[in-house]
Amino acid sequence: MKKILIAALVATGVLLVVLYSQLDAIVETGITSNGPDILAVDVGVENISISPFSGAIGVTGLTIGQPAGFGDGAMFALGDFSMKLETGSLFGNHIIIDSMLVDAALLDVRRQEGKTNFQAFQDGLNLPTDDSTSPPEEDITITIRELIIRAPRILAKNDGFLKLDEDITLADFTLTDLGTDEEGLAPKEIARHIMDTLQPQITKALIAAGASNKVKEIAAGAKGKLEKGFGGLLDKLKKKKKPE
Predict the structure, then answer these.
(1) Can you spell out the DSSP letters for 217-236?
(2) Cα dist. 4→18, 204, 223, 232 in Å?
(3) What is the extent of the structural domain holding 97?
(4) Residues 201-228 pLDDT 10s
């Protein structure tokens, strides 16, 4: 019996080592295979590195394609992303992130016939419109102790009456202690803090580029849609993970 138990432990150990060594490839395949089904657009990634015991995650070359009717290319692209989180928090609804670095993020905002590609993207997700659809006890909250965003870039193009075609690189910024004073913040609140920092930069860049007031109103209106969509997307992904 003792020999059988030892053999079983050794076999389990070998299996864990094999799974650990293949974890990056498993997650990468999951993103590229399941991402398009969940998001209804093309999804690509160059490389993923995961250290489950230390809580370190790295992603390179993540791209999310344009929704149907808005042409080719990426609606969102990410040069590099790294994150260090408390692994124990993944077993609860309050996820604690020690540090997060977002490098060379690109948003390609396109507007056609009165609708932006981000609006079309959210419509394709069929996101819930009522925040009460998720029971409060199941809501996920997030704490981010440090968030660094480097070289964010926005492409803004409008093919309507007001022509616009701008390439805007924004300043680096760092946000700290998001949700540390409470039991975390809702995902849409995290998005609001980020957009509160980005929006003045975007408006200033559009003014410098000579954009009209109408286009600046469009940029400001996108802020609320992103906050709501971020929370709705997380809710949709959470429901996707539940067994049928």
Answers:
(1) HHHHHHHHHHHHHHHHHHHH
(2) 21, 70, 60, 50
(3) 2-241
(4) 776 766 666 655 555 555 555 555 555 5
